[in-house]
User: Which sequence fits this backbone?
């Protein structure tokens, strides 16, 4: 997830204060990982430095004055480019899961036990996502489906890898 580009996209929709940007980010994109206020303002500072946003009107707030940020043409062009370029297909061939299996085998550690533990962790997460779908909004459902499909793929890979562990162990211990 690109926080700067996402914030720029939210600003293209409408000029906003940092607080409003954080709220909208957390609502639509932060599921389980809310964006810290410090990161919002640090990112806005970098975007302003790079000429992608400017400060608009400054109004009074409960605490310090509230700065309203406005996207520039340069920022809007970057959002447009980002939205029209395809995302690199995932997963990449070299993942943490794969690396742990190969290293476990190289070090003569119980890779099968690791994979079974990982399977249990994936299944637990799948149950959490399924529960989210039951009581969530359409956005929750769409995000949960995306996660579930990736987890299902990982589980198929785990099963295939367990079936091939002896052969893989011979390959990596050469």
Assistant:
């Amino acid at each position: 997830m690109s926080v700067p580009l996402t914030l720029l996209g939210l600003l293209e929709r409408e000029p906003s204060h940092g607080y409003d940007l954080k709220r909208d980010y957390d609502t639509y994109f932060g599921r389980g990982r809310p964006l810290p206020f410090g990161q919002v303002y640090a990112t806005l500072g970098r975007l302003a430095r790079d000429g992608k946003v400017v400060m608009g009107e400054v109004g009074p707030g409960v605490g310090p004055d509230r700065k309203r940020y406005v996207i520039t043409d340069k920022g809007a062009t970057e959002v447009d480019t980002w939205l029209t370029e395809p995302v690199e297909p995932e997963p990449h061939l070299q993942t943490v899961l794969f690396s742990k299996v190969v290293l476990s085998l190289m070090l003569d550690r119980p890779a099968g036990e690791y994979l079974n533990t990982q399977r249990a962790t994936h299944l637990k997460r799948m149950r959490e996502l399924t529960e989210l779908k039951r009581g969530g909004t359409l956005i929750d459902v769409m995000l949960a489906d995306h996660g579930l499909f990736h987890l299902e793929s990982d589980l198929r890979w785990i099963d295939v890898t367990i079936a091939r562990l002896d052969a893989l162990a011979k390959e990596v211990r050469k």
